[in-house]
Design a protein that fits this description.
The chain is built from eleven helices and 13 strands. By secondary structure, it is α/β, with parallel strands linked by helices. It has a seven-stranded parallel β-sheet with strand order 3-2-1-4-5-6-11, sandwiched between helices. A two-stranded parallel sheet has the order 7-10.
């Protein structure tokens, strides 16, 4: 059993990862500043796992508060989720993204060095690849030009890890490059429920279907794709959560000498219109959507080759796009009661 600090544990991916870690016998401590989450999610996590969650209100930019957590606990690993993540918002508010995503991470890594924590899992993104020349992308695909400040903070975060790993070879690092997480826990007690306005496609679809939005805007229909809309790789959040548990266990067991980097996606690219069609089939209802101009910061197409994660972590996705839409829709209906 490992004791794991999860930053941003009240968030979407963080909360599902808490569940998976506990389900696989690990102890967790969660910290969050609730900038885009709510502490009430811990009650749902406790109900799912039948375990008490140790959590604290901590902003990573406050070093005194962060140090207090490390002084009160001894951690085997840290999983770092806490970051702002909206592409569009990052274009409009770049300084907030650099302040939250970079400054907070630097403070966290300082604590790892000072308190002797040996294993660090970083929540990165497929956005680091930019508009890749070849698909699917593999871990060795060149890092492209960042299409948004959000993507650039992930690129910078990976570079910081590379530099720290040279200066502190006693710390082992795992970089997990997510594609597009979606869906909800099968209990429907937790799901994607950001405090701020949702910008990701799947929750926007379900919010439109239930009447919270008048229509879904599809940003661009003239991309060089099979139907003109952007292509993304959608991965069920519970598959993604389990990859973090496996990453913790991998670092502790294998003690890799170099940074372990893994793509986490389904291996299949879906266009925006294909995702809409899948929802309509699962929910048995038509969705009100309209085509609008392209959105700044959007990449045309990206999807994963996850064979390295399969080989070294023993990970592969177990759920598909229909499962994503089914659980996301059930979650939307549950939280809208």
């Amino acid at each position: 059993m490992a004791k794991v600090l999860v930053t941003g544990g009240a968030g979407y991916i963080g909360s599902h990862t808490l569940v998976d870690l506990i389900d696989h016998g690990h102890a967790v401590v969660s910290i969050d500043n609730y900038l885009n989450s709510d502490p009430s999610v811990y009650q749902s996590v406790e109900k799912i796992t039948n375990s008490k969650i140790d959590y604290e209100d901590v902003d990573l930019k406050s070093m005194p508060d962060l140090k207090r957590v490390f002084e009160e606990h001894t951690f085997d690993a840290v999983i770092h989720f806490a970051a702002l993540k909206s592409v569009g918002d990052s274009v409009e508010n770049p300084l907030s993204y650099y302040e939250n995503n970079i400054a907070g991470m630097v403070n966290l890594l300082k604590c790892l060095v000072e308190y002797g924590v040996e294993n660090f899992i970083f929540s990165s993104s497929c956005s680091v690849y930019g508009n890749a020349d070849e698909l699917p992308v593999v871990e060795s695909t060149p890092i492209g030009s960042a299409e948004s400040p959000y993507a650039r903070t992930k690129q910078i975060g990976e570079q910081i890890i590379a530099d720290v790993s040279v200066a502190h070879p006693d710390i082992r690092f795992c970089v997990l490059r997510y594609f597009n997480p979606a869906g909800a826990h099968p209990s429907i007690l937790i799901g994607e429920s950001a405090r701020n306005k949702a910008n990701n496609l799947v929750p926007v679809i379900t919010e439109t279907a239930i009447g919270k939005r008048a229509a879904l805007h599809v940003f661009g229909d003239n991309y060089d794709t099979r139907d003109g809309t952007c292509i993304r790789d959608y991965i069920h959040v519970m598959d993604l959560a389990h990859a973090h548990t496996l990453a913790v266990e991998y670092l502790i067991r294998e003690k890799p000498q170099s940074i372990a980097t893994f793509n986490l996606g389904s291996g299949t690219g879906s266009t925006v219109l294909e995702v809409i069609k899948t929802f309509e089939q699962v929910a048995d209802q038509k969705l009100n959507f309209k085509m609008v101009d392209r959105r700044p910061g959007d990449v045309e197409a990206v999807y994963a080759d996850y064979s390295l994660a399969k080989e070294l972590l023993g990970w592969s996705p177990q759920l598909d796009l229909k499962d994503i839409m089914r659980t996301a829709w059930a979650w939307e209906q549950h939280r809208s009661k």
